[in-house]
Amino acid sequence: MSAKIHPVMDVIIIGAGLSGIGAAVHLQQNCPGKSYLILEARSALGGTWDLFRYPGIRSDSDMHTLGYRFKPWKAAKAIADGPSILSYVQETADEHGITPHIRFGHQLIAADWSDSESRWALTVGTESGEQIFHCTMLLMCSGYYNYGDAYTPEFDGRDTFKGPVIHPQHWPQNLDYHNKKVVIIGSGATAMTLAPSMAEEAAHVTVLQRSPTYVVSRPDRDVIANTLRKFLPESWAYAITRWKNVRLSQYVYKRSRTRPEKLKKMLLDMVRKELGPDYDVEKHFTPHYNPWDQRLCLVPNADLFKSIKSGKTEMVTDHIERFTDKGILLKSGQELEADIIVTATGLTLEVLGGARFSKNAEPLEFADTWAYKGLMFSGVPNMVFTFGYINASWTLRADLIAEFFCRLINEMDRTGSKSCTPVLRDSDNGMPPRPFIDDFSAGYMQRMMHRFPKQGDRAPWLNPQNYAGDRKLLRRDSLDDGVLQFR
d(Cα 42, Cα 391) in Å, to the nearest integer? Predict the structure, then answer.
């Protein structure tokens, strides 16, 4: 049976998560009249915030910057739980009439650009078989990690453990951990979120980490934001709070680059104040790297520290020898007894949702390309991909990329162009390559950076991961830069 072929759309967006829904709103506002669809592999919108269902799931960024620029976050809690964030995304889609444009259960399998037709042909998997969609412009909002496969290292003796071994990405419904002993393997945001939440019902929770992470406590309510809303219009209060939080996060990140030892001391002093002088902060909360070489872990209202002080949660810093029938044997010889083991060991990254891409039927290898402003690939026409910040809220950059995408469409209309492709200038040849995400040592990034495009040492072949720099790069710089080739 031949695949069903759909009419050509002006724009197709891949992914109906936080980025995809936001991009659709920008498209409707800035490019009115353009036809578009959103293809979503899953059966519901929301992306990450619909996928993850583990106890305590929440943001690790404040919602005044993780929220959309155009839609104020109105809840009192700025560090929000997963269901609240999902409701925010769903509400955005409903308010702007986005949902009818979404095709659920549509998984992008392959995409081929045709120079002769100046459009993309998308092979999409559905329950009824493969279908073909065509579009002039393609916007990838599929995130950067694999929704099907989480990262779990090989553990010697795993099959000997009698209880369940669970990855947070695949949390089972109705898991009973009441009065159970739980060991959580991991030192990232997921582990720090799970521990205090599970400890409320579990008999005891142990967080087992090979090496510590910087953990900082912050109130889940923004007093300034909630006060401003009492006296100012909602949009004004939101804009001021967003500006305040962006500037604060940029200041902290800059300090981590210029005076890392001073910031390190401040962060560790805060932990000591929470846990008291007798707690071994050096062992359990002092990483071997500088602040923001990996993400800081945010814990709202010191919930993790309170759980540790109550005795419900324990931090153990050691290496795993092997699993046993009763739990985990450590290199030190200590055995951690467990009824349930949670492997909060990270994500598996993938490029553009794992789909195959080609140009004129010739396979594209994105690792061989250069990243134009961190959102297009050299030599690849009419496609933009959304990759947010690893040192700030994802949506800050997703909003900027959506705005840029709309600028690009409008410029193509103005010039009567059918394609737009970033092409290296003669002066760019011989640029020293750098990883797409540089100066960030997190394992989940390092494992897959070789699959992403390279960045260079000069504009516009940069992915600065800097909001102030991106505002200039993506909002104010001319599109006629000698690199974008309009045809």
Answer: 28
